[in-house]
Design brief:
The chain is mostly beta strands and about 240 residues long. It has a domain of about 160 residues. It has 4 helices and 16 strands. The longest helix has 10 residues. It is globular. The protein starts with a helix and ends with a strand.
């Protein structure tokens, strides 16, 4: 089999605007923002406590949900800037270089290439960059590994929710993403280790995926999703 054939991806349509595939044991949900309603659920906005991705799906009528980003020691605030409408979960920008802006559509911003006008977007979130908008792997070689949840965008403006329970160094994880025919035009880290989560409940797929391994923090023993304060999701089709 050729390398191209080995890396080919077979997509399963879950509902209009949502496709699912599992290349190289990686879970990938591809989402067309023009055909679905994307939303965030933030514990800080709803006066709620952190919930698992599965619980966020049930309580917020979501078909798919993934971490929106790493959170601070208050277990509520995103590590980077995060705004939903007028609600500021975290008003402070840090030195992370990737921003995803949603509603209308989806826009990727590399902050080292200059800030864009973000006021017109409903959701703006800043996270640790994995792959730049120029398809460059920005991580140096490192022995640290973890289960990974990531959000990416392709050249057509479709979002990719990415999850691997198997641990990777981020250099190797990024190389895998760039080898696969996913057309990635930018990717951000949204969580690692046991907090990494992806839930899918649509089109006959019912999965609540949980990470585990994180070098120096957790082994492969975790089997359940951990409560998380902020998620990005797709509203369930009627």
């Amino acid at each position: 089999m050729s390398l191209l054939g080995a890396l080919a991806i077979s997509w399963r349509l879950l509902q209009p605007g949502i496709e699912y595939a599992t290349p190289q044991n990686l879970h990938v949900v591809r989402i067309d923002p023009a055909r679905v309603k994307l939303t965030v659920a933030l514990a800080s906005e709803h006066g709620a406590t952190p919930r698992t991705a599965a619980e966020w799906c049930r309580n917020s009528n979501l078909a798919v949900a993934i971490n929106l980003g790493m959170y601070q020691t208050d277990h509520i605030s995103n590590v980077g800037y995060l705004r939903h409408g007028k609600h500021l979960n975290n008003p402070r920008w840090n030195d992370y270089q990737s921003v995803l802006a949603l509603g209308p559509g989806a826009k990727w911003i590399d902050l080292d290439q200059g800030k864009a006008q973000l006021d017109r977007y409903d959701v703006v979130v800043q996270n640790l960059r994995l792959i730049s908008g120029k398809r460059r792997n920005v991580w140096a070689k490192n022995d640290r590994q973890w289960s990974e949840a990531a959000i990416a965008i392709d050249s057509k403006g479709r979002l990719l929710f990415l999850f691997s329970r198997a641990p990777y160094s981020m250099r190797d994880f990024n190389d895998l993403l760039l080898r696969l025919p996913l057309d990635i035009a930018g990717a951000m880290h949204v969580e690692g280790g046991p907090e990494a989560s992806l839930s899918i409940h649509t089109g006959g797929v019912d999965l609540d995926l949980a990470g585990s391994v994180e070098t120096g923090f957790w082994d492969d023993s975790n089997r359940k999703q951990w409560p998380i304060p902020n998620i990005l999701g797709v509203v369930r089709a009627k």
